[in-house]
Give the backbone structure.
Amino acid sequence: MTDNGIAIRINNLHKAFGTQKVLEGINLDIKHGEITVIIGKSGGGKSVLMKHLIGLLRPDEGEIWIDGSDITRLKEKDLNEVRKKFGMLFQEAALFDSMNVLDNVAFPVREHTRLPEKEIVRMAQEILRNVGLAGFDDKMPSELSGGMRKRVGLARALILDPGIILFDEPTSALDPITSLTILDLITETQERLHKTFVVISHDILGMFRIAHNVAMLNNGRIVEFGTPKEIRQSKKEEVKEFLKATGIPGFAGGDK
Amino acid sequence: MRSYVGYQERYRGLMFISLMGRLSEGVISILRELGGMGFMFLNSILLLFRRPLKLNYIFKQMEFIGVKSAGVVIITGTFTGMVLALQSYYGFRKFSAEGLVGTTVALSMTRELGPVLTSLMVTGRAGSAMAAELGTMRVTEQIDALIVMALNPIKYLVTPRVIASFFMLPILTIVSDFVGIVGGWLVGVKLLGINEGAFINKMIKYLDFEDIYNGLAKAACFGVILSVVACYKGFYTKGGAEGVGRSTTESVVIASVSILIADYVLTSLMF
């Protein structure tokens, strides 16, 4: 079911926690080799949706198709095989506090391959150079700034060369300048590697800068899907309202 | 008037039902936690046999739980032995049996105080650290990061701690037993002037190897209890920094109480 350049197909996904319905029938196709941004209000179910993509949560109803298998029905062991196709950059980077930068980046390789140590270190150093952190090998995560941590997190997500990379709020808790550098890094990495990137965020302006496709999530449903330009020209009230929150006149409906 | 009485009775009935409800909720949540801990323990042991074996993780925890707790265990053990000698001397002097002080110190240390005090000290030092570390890893998504990397967090985080505690607690207890007896000897023989020959001969005569073994077996069980409680509480932490604090406190309280209860149960089984 994942033909036609579709990397992830989400069908009618429902999830409730107790009586609180978070996802109410999500339908979304994420295209292969592009940056798809899922945008929406805080607490609107974005993180919950992302956790379903990687099997951290199981839906009450619905399917998620990745590479020909519905991951919502897989056993933990098979799910782990699917997870190896993913890399993920967590909101606070989720680096292991007990390891230095190099060991953090090398960790997935050490655990999943039998490459010689020299080769692992070379790989880690190369990927750290690619994210602009050459020479930071021996620093501990606590010594790094928020932006640097995200760079290390991205390096760790990329090192096993996964086909799909998930980004959970890549610009949250960063100053505007650092946000821009991280966004540029995401774009640059995507242009270099041509992988499928899925980003969730509430940072509208930042996301419109990097997205090929935008899916707007509101009240547990995808209310609009399209290119950034199509989203801005959307006639739907909830989309307009969200775009107006940027405070930029003419952002909603315009093509500036 | 009649309706008022009826109301009162009904009210009392409702109170009773809500009280029972709350009580059963409490019982259920305790059972659920116990079940969760049991499951985590079994899981961590099963994962030990699934390749690859993470020996370096186990050694690292052994160092943290064992080697780094040695200082505090030595101090506690020594002073416990010393005070035991002092207290038992006071009692035995009343019927001129000072020579039994050595036996009393040795039996109390090996059978009871060595394992229990060591476990309580390790709970305070290493158990709290385990809960805080795993709790922090949970709230900062490091545990999720492991899962996303297709790695089993129980295998990486819980198994090494449980195994290391299982092996290190008996070793620490041997240390504690030894320094406790030395402390008792110092106070009894050197300070209070008990005849050294009587002190040592009677101690050797009445102390069986079984006393020591039983103490060490208890210590190994306590090691499992404290590590499983701490890991469980840390692993399932909710609610940010406050949650980490709560998990840490709860783990120390629950582990300490469980150790004392288990101590009675195990001792009565070993008699």
User: Anything to note?
Assistant: The first helix of chain A runs from residue 46 to 53. Chain A touches chain B through 20 residues (CB under 8 Å). The CA atoms of residues 22 and 45 of chain A lie 6 Å apart.
